[in-house]
Amino acid sequence: LLIVSCSLFSQTGWFPCNTGTNNDLTSVSFVDQNTGWVAGYNNTVDYHGVILRSTNGGTNWVSQVDEYNFQPESIYFLDENSGWSTGSRLFGTNRSAVKKTTNSGTTWMNVTIPDTSISTNSVYFIDQNTGWISGRDINNKVKIFKTMNGGLNWTVMETDFISSNPGPKIQFLNSNTGYLAALQLIKTTNGGLNWNISDLGSNVNASQPYFVNANTGWVTGYSQHPAVNYIKKTNDGGNSWVSQLVYPLATGRAVYSTYFINSTTGWSAGSEYVNSSLILKTTNSGVTWSTQTSQAYTNSLSSIFFINENYGWSVGTNGRMLRTTDGGGSLTAFETISSSIPKSYSLKQNYPNPFNPVTYIEFSIPETGFVKLSVFSSIGREIGILVNEQLQPGIYRTQFEGSRLPSGVYFYTLNSKNYMETKKLVLIK
After folding, report:
1. Of 43, 81, 230, 364, which sits 20 to 30 A from 410 (CA to CA)?
2. Predicted structure pTM score
3. Segments making up each domain of the chain, as ranges
């Protein structure tokens, strides 16, 4: 089944791709800017799980697995041929659902682990032979399975740790050092034989770890009392942690997945007001995070993946996929010129105009509300989102950078509540 998806037209920022499924997508993995896979499931209608593959960056998708009683939670590829998927089965005594491919997903083999009563939630391989699977039993006790021969045999590693939904997430840096986020963040330095708690602080639960080296890593997490969502960072291998991003429940924001391409640049994906997409980016190791997309698209995002500083994908509920080819767009989205309350909405003419390659746009907002400022091509295609979030009353200025676009006439539109205005700008190279 071939699924025609998002446009090949040059775009900036994050844009949606139609994966052709309404299943909740739980995981995404790409090996280059063209070849990647997504996995997801629907456990309320037909109880089918799917694995889809793209060979052109997400523009088209081919269904490789569409299976009843299959709930994939994680997909992981070492290269364009070798990949793994782990998940669970809702019905029957065999709860584990582990699949392996050696031919890009043309065929997927079911893999049996020593304890099939385990719901397998996460998989990580460091080479063709050595990998780990994490899961939990019916009492939410964490179990870890290790293979050193590509999944032919597995060693069971019992733990005394407890996990919760969506289950333990695992990452390894090498054959010895690895991290697992359950309710607690735990660390091993001997390949998984022993695990010790990495203290995140009082009442903080871990959701997903992401380390770029032996010292530097981040973890998404949450607490229930008070109800707060976190991103925390360590510079000493998990011995100590600093909170970088704190979202109380009242803000409506939550982050679930984080991905860094190096020690300074990373992204985090999640939701805003339960079912709107949220993507944040940092270029200073998480000291500050800027919103790249917020409420522009419905559906919460559960997983984010990048192959370099430009190409990235994020997936979530109801088949939602967003992709970017420019790192998600500019971080200098806007600046506040004045916090005095304007009498009315206004959108000024950009300056300079014509421009090459940067121009500035000023606008006024008289009341608190959600504001979207977008740029469109001459045929009405949205090619950039400059502002896309809740703003307080004030006068703002943003910039638009057109180095990736051809010369021509473009339009920019300001939307807020019952106000909409459009103006023309001209790019001449």
Report:
1. 364
2. 0.78
3. 2-324, 335-427
